[in-house]
Amino acid sequence: MALEDSTTSPPGRLRHRTVSAAVAESLRQRILNGELAPGIQLRQDALAEEFGISRIPIREALLQLEAGGLVKIVPHRGAVVAGLSVEEVEDIFQLRLQLEPPLLALSAPRFTRADYKGLRALTEEYGAALEAGQIERWGELNRRFHLDLLRHAARPRSLSIISGLLQDCDRPTRLQLSASGDVARADREHTQIVALCEADKVGEAAELLHAHIAHAATSLIEIYRRAHAD
Fold it and tell me: Is the pTM of this model over 0.90?
């Protein structure tokens, strides 16, 4: 997968910045779709050989990924793909279980027709991405759906916390869906939550949201524990 790094490219620093951005984007997609798993070491010499370029843009690309939280620079190991521990995953989902269902109970009674139209469009887009195997889109669409469910709760601090939690569990959620085969279940439950809200069954919708998050947590923690046991 050689990238242009010849004398025909823009000179000096500009060339390195252009090539490093392309390398960073390639590695970012491989990390986000699970091809490069947490803990994998990203060796500069191996990457330079793979991309057919010098180590300078590789080093710059890894620094970009570190700034984005996808890579950690570890003493004596170099760059490794960042990931969450089992304990961190448990903590994230426990917080989501505590925060999201009550906020849905506050938000759903304030939904407008436009809100329901937007939520249904998101569920359709999410379902299409799941069916097409567009793994890189699952996390962002899932995050948007959950935040839109809670948008009218009038609890900005809580929503800010949830937004960060959803961002943190973006990759783990995609791992859970891919490894467990729960894509159809996730799609179905999203649709059911919206339908319950629209039918003015907000309590049932909040209960289903709790079960939805709890199932994802249980499934993902099991996957993480199996991986650590291997």
Answer: no
- Of 34, 31, 26, whose CA–CA distance to 80 is shortest? 31
What is the structure's pLDDT at 33? 67
Q: Which helix (H) or strand (E) holds 2?
A: none
CA distances (Å), origin 99, targets 60, 136, 163, 205: 38, 26, 11, 14
- pLDDT (mean) for 189-216: 97
Where do the domains of the chain lie, and which CATH numbers do they carry? Answer: 12-81 (1.10.10.10), 86-229 (1.20.120.530)
Of the listed ranges 10-19, 61-70, 123-132, 139-148, the least confidently predicted one is 10-19
170-186 tens-digit pLDDT: 777 776 677 666 778 88
At position 28, the amino acid (one-letter code) is: R
CB 197 within 8 A of CB 108: yes
Q: Please give the structure tokens belonging to residue 75.
A: 């003493």
Alpha-carbon distance 31 to 38, whole Å? 8
Asked if 138 and 182 count as a contact pair (C-beta separation under 8 A), the reply is no
Q: Please name the residue that has the structure tokens 């690309």.
A: 61
Token pair in block for residue 23 = 């390398």
Contact at 8 Å (CB) between 147 and 135?
no
Residue 80, SS3 per DSSP: strand
59 compared with 13, residue with greater pLDDT: 59
